[in-house]
Amino acid sequence: MQGLTWSLCALLCLSLWEESHCRSSRDARRTKGPSLIRSKRAPIDPDDKRCSYTFLVPQQKITGPICASTTGPEPDKDRVTRMDIADVREVLNKQRREIETLQLVVDVDGNLVNEMKLLRKESRNMNSRVTQLYMQLLHEIIRKRDNSLELAQLENRVLNVTSEMMRLASRYRELAARFSTMAGVVNNQSVLIAALEEQCLRTVGRGELPIVPPLVQVVPQHLPVNNRFTNEIQRDHNNRAFARGSRMDSPTASPFGINPPPPQGTLTADGPFKDCYQVRQAGHTTSGMYLLKTNASERLIQAWCEHGLDNGGWTVLQRRRDGSVNFFRNWENYKKGFGNIDGEHWLGLDNIYNLGKQGDYKLMIELEDWTGKKVYAEYSSFHLESESEGYRLRLGTYQGNAGDSFSSHNGKQFTTLDRDKDAFSGNCAHFHKGGWWYNACGQTNLNGVWYSGGVYRSKFQDGIFWAEYGGGFYSLKSARLMIRPID
Ligand SMILES: [Ca+2]
Q1: Cα(331)–Cα(414) distance, rounded to whole angstroms?
Q2: Model confidence at 187, in pLDDT bands (50, 70, 90)?
Q3: Region Disordered: start and end of each range (predicted)?
Q4: Which of 76, 141, 207, 256 could form a disulfide with 337 if both were Cys (CB 3.0 to 4.6 A apart)?
Q5: Residue 354 Cα, ligand 1 centroid: separation in angstroms?
Q6: Angle at the Cα of 324 (from 247 to 219), degrees rounded to 5?
Q7: pTM of the full predicted structure?
Q8: Contacts of 79 (CB under 8 A, 6+ apart)
Q9: Separation of 442 CA from ligand 1 center, angstroms?
């Protein structure tokens, strides 16, 4: 009887254990079994994960024998407990393995989650970058479209300007042709007017007509053209050419040297030199005023040395450029020289003669028309004879692009308004209003009247002309006579 009771107790215990298999004490409290209450055993050591149980026997009315006994069969109780423990341990081990497996899975899942997070973050960054690049591309496209529009506008403008230029060039050519024709007509009419005037005077005055020199008949094929030509050249001549202190009909009395103008250019303390070529050889490369002294004279000469043309070393004998100086002067003036060394001037026949005696010189004549074009006439040799020979001109052979209008003056003496040495029956200086080596009278008049604008109208050909370049009625804008020793 007692053994049966222990067996029932053991069974009850086993079944209870199976039912509440390691549930927590909370779950145990929630269990509202009418017959079994499992109380919490507190405190439970968290490290001790083994379950421990307290079996409470339900209160019931004991009607039979009580199986609890302190002196019960110990061997049966020990055997059951070991089995249980073995089972429990086996189950526990199994669960631990499952837990470990689950833990591994959880770890792997955690890594995957982290990787997923990283990937998501990366994806967001990539999206942001793609958006940024797209915006940049959009801006670039817009910019290129704007550029292409601007380019198209510029091309249109270039086309318009080119078209306008072509139209203007065409118009300019038309005007140049018309001007050339009109200039020819003016030239011819001047000759005709002069002839008619002569005929008229001859008829009225019954032959008591002053003899006038023949006009230069050269009408060049290509007149230098400029846009400032008007029919008011004569007025301009009267008002402007001699507006700076001299009258055309009364030669200036003060010769160069007596009342010299204040120098406005550079004047080196170096020197004196025999000529500008020696100045150049001394190392001076700046064009300007230098002191010269020729071998034949003790007199110092202020002269303009041109070092900017053809390697320099040119001594300037004469210069015209703005009409600021009257060149209609007497013999004494032409002998001594006059004008401003840094502007219009005449170096003086005496000085030119003394310079030429020092060696073999060549002559360069530089002419500039009213379009700014410059042409040159060079003569292979140049010197003057003495005053007793009327400063007779001695020229070599011509070369250049201005045409040779000076060789016809070769061998002629110098003529001024008060000393007639020319080949004409009258005085060429009176008609040409200058001093020159006149023939009868000549193909060039570089000491004539400075007319503004080029083509001029005058009773006589008294402008600064060079027949081969512009004709007798085209007054040049500037002219220079220069000498340098022959190379
Ligand atoms: Ca004469």
Answers
A1: 9
A2: confident
A3: 244-264
A4: 256
A5: 26
A6: 90
A7: 0.54
A8: none
A9: 12
